[in-house]
Design brief:
By secondary structure, the chain is mostly helical. It contains ten helices and no strands.
């Protein structure tokens, strides 16, 4: 940073030659100390001029602030620069704002520093140091802002991507849950169908079994009935045989123009007569023989 030591001039209306000489000598000693880098001596000389000699010049106060700044005494430097930020002397006000900008920049108060440099340029458009610092800092802030915006954009894109991924993940989980639920319901339905089919099969098998048992019982009953029929009285069997239609007899009866019922009635009557005849002969044979008569 280039610093310009402000030249001091004695006010023309001062009439005390001895005081004027003393002030000019102190100013010269302060300037020589500042130029040689003896800032401590320069500070002492400037305080002597301001405090003791009561020289109230903004240029002198600016040199005092610069000396403190070069000594790294930021507290005193800041106090003096701030007191000159509203100076009526444009060049002094410009230099004070410029130095405040440098101090704020060192504190990383970039927005305040940029404003200080801007105020310094307004106070003195020819202050090239302030203009250079302003443009350099503004470029840096613009790049930083652009970088931050890009980072924010990237962060937002990342957040959006993460949000989309999370939404996709949630949707996949939801779809999977629905799929699992549908699968469970289908398995339940399949199991119910299976149970129903099994139940129907069991009922069918039971019915078949009962039907088989019934048929078996029926066959056994038929067999039993057949055996009972076979064990019937031969006469009944013969009667049954007789009752069975005889094709040849039916044909002869038809030729004789006699119905089967009428033929049966005739046979039955003949049978009855035969039985009566046999019974009568039996009674005769059962009477005791007369010994005085022949057998015949």
């Amino acid at each position: 940073m280039k610093y310009i030591l402000v030249s001091l001039f004695v006010v023309a209306f001062v009439t005390d030659p001895f005081r004027i000489g003393k002030i000019n000598r102190a100013k010269s000693e302060a300037r020589e100390a500042y130029t040689s880098g003896d800032y401590k001596t320069a500070v002492q000389k400037y305080h002597y001029l301001i405090d003791s000699m009561k020289v109230m010049e903004d240029e002198l106060k600016l040199n005092l602030a610069n000396a403190y700044f070069m000594m790294n005494d930021t507290a005193n430097a800041l106090t003096n620069y701030e007191s000159l930020a509203g100076s009526k002397v444009n060049a002094v006000r410009s230099k004070a704002q410029q130095q405040l900008g440098i101090m704020n920049y060192r504190k990383q108060k970039n927005e305040q520093a940029l404003n200080n440099f801007k105020q310094a340029i307004k106070a003195d458009p020819d202050n090239m140091d302030a203009r250079y610092n302003y443009e350099l800092l503004k470029k840096k802030l613009d790049e930083k802002k652009k970088k931050e915006e890009e980072e924010q954009k990237k962060d937002q894109q990342k957040k959006d991507q993460q949000k989309d991924q999370q939404q996709n993940k949630d949707q996949q989980q939801k779809d999977q849950q629905q799929k699992d639920q549908q699968q469970k319901e289908q398995e339940k339905k399949d199991q119910q169908n299976k149970d129903q089919k099994s139940k129907e099969q069991q009922q069918k098998e039971q019915q078949q079994k009962e039907q088989q048992q019934k048929e078996q019982q029926q066959k056994e009953q038929e067999k039993k009935d057949q055996q009972q029929k076979e064990q019937q009285n031969p006469e009944q069997k013969q009667d049954q045989e007789k009752k069975k239609p005889n094709p040849e007899l039916s044909e002869k009866l038809e030729q004789m123009k006699i119905s089967e019922q009428k033929a049966r009635m005739i046979l039955e009557a003949m049978k009855n007569q035969e039985i009566q005849y046999l019974q009568q002969n039996k009674r005769k044979a059962s009477k005791p023989k007369d010994k005085g008569k022949p057998d015949w």
